[in-house]
Design brief:
Blueprint (H helix, E strand, L loop, with lengths): L2 H9 L16 H7 L5 H7 L4 E5 L9 E4 L4 E3 L5 E3 L7 E2 L8 H5 L11 H12 L4 E6 L4 H6 L3 H10 L1 H25 L3 E4 L4 E2 L2 E2 L3 H21 L3 E4 L9 H6 L4 E2 L9 H7 L5 E3 L4 H6 L2 H15 L5 E2 L12 H14 L7
Parallel strand pairs: 1-6, 6-7, 7-10, 10-11, 11-12, 12-13
Antiparallel strand pairs: 2-3, 3-4, 4-5, 8-9
Length: 347
């Protein structure tokens, strides 16, 4: 099997020749430490990655509309202020772009056709189509209201005090992403990974009832539209999501993950879903950042033993390969998966 066939086998409920490898994102500094001067695309061939990805929600510093570069303040495509942290994702800043119904009435959302991910995706399709699975990593209906309302706290307050505003903001995010993913799938993308974070270590940010009212309808629509065009859906979120697990499964997404190993062991996720949903991950990023290659090898083999035998598993980190990850540990995870991830699993 080549990488694309391997990934498709898992998504279709069949056993591949070995467990595919998946990362939402690999920080360029890790690639440069392993192979100086190598592009992401060349690294995908060098490391024989099963899935190649690009981000729909990130904007390069060169393209940012700076408001105050010295302070790291810029305006995103939604017209919102964000604080640049030096990492891939920025932080929403006051004042909110939408304060209430009056602001919303005059608001014009961005045009999905102008998202800078489109030429990046075309480049990946031209190089890798049919050889490696091509995945875009993006958002759905929960992150965008946080940008427009300058943070999570305001969105949570809206659920109680301005519920109609909360629904309309979720609808703006839904419509934008339905159209964006339609464009990307028509370009030849295979998989959409949805990355809005719903939870912390003690549970979801909102009650299960509020999730059902404000998030689930839009999420379900986004998943349905992706699937209708032949795409597959992976849902990532940080935190403890047991309280909304049944709701997530009701959307008919294909896979869950990566999820945080401390709260969401993937073998339990598979059991709770009745093996109806696949799982992605779940080598702890903290271990990849602080541990030794030997410890990473042991943890990777443990994931392979516990999760992979029944199929439905992409192996990777518990989030992404951030700049904090030790390059030798990432490489140890890849090599261990190739050595011990062949079916039948005997890790």
């Amino acid at each position: 099997m080549n990488a694309h066939e391997r990934v498709q086998a898992v998504l279709q409920g069949r056993l591949p020749d070995r467990v595919p490898l998946f990362e939402l994102f690999i920080d360029p500094s890790v690639i440069q430490a392993l192979q100086p001067g190598m592009s992401y695309e060349d690294f995908a061939d060098y490391a024989d990655l099963d899935v190649v990805t690009c981000l729909t929600m990130a904007e390069s510093p060169e393209r940012m509309e700076w408001v105050d570069r010295a302070r790291g303040v810029w305006r995103d495509k939604w017209g919102c202020l964000q604080g640049f942290t030096g990492e891939i994702m920025s932080v929403p800043m006051d004042p909110p772009r939408i304060r209430g119904p009056e602001d919303l009435a005059a608001y014009e959302p961005p045009d999905p056709r102008k998202n800078e991910v489109l030429p990046v995706a075309r480049k990946l399709v031209a190089r890798f189509k049919g050889q490696r699975a091509i995945c875009v990593v993006g958002e759905e209906v929960f992150a965008v209201p946080q940008y427009l309302r300058a943070g999570l706290a305001n969105v949570m307050t809206d659920y109680l005090l301005q519920p109609e505003l909360a629904r309309k903001l979720a609808g703006i995010a839904r419509d934008y992403h339905v159209e964006l993913y339609r464009l990307l799938l028509r370009e030849g993308v295979d998989i959409v990974a949805l990355g809005d974070d719903y939870a912390g270590k003690t549970g979801t940010y909102m009650s299960p009832q509020h999730f059902r009212e404000f998030v689930l309808p839009g999420l379900t629509t986004v998943v349905k539209e992706i699937r209708a065009l032949g795409g597959r859906v992976i849902k990532h979120t940080d935190g403890n999501i047991w309280g909304i697990m049944d709701q997530l499964l009701s959307t008919e997404l294909d896979m869950l993950g990566p999820l945080e190993p401390a709260y969401m062991p993937l073998d339990e996720v598979r059991r709770r879903s009745g093996l109806k949903v696949g799982v992605v991950g779940n080598v702890d990023v903290d271990l990849l950042s602080r541990g030794t290659p030997g410890e990473v090898e042991a943890a990777t083999r443990e994931q392979l033993r516990r999760i992979s035998p029944l199929g439905g598993h992409f192996l990777g980190s518990g989030n992404s390969i951030s700049a904090s990850v030790r390059p030798e540990n990432y490489w140890a995870m890849l090599q261990t998966a190739r050595r011990f991830g062949k079916y039948p699993i005997a890790a």
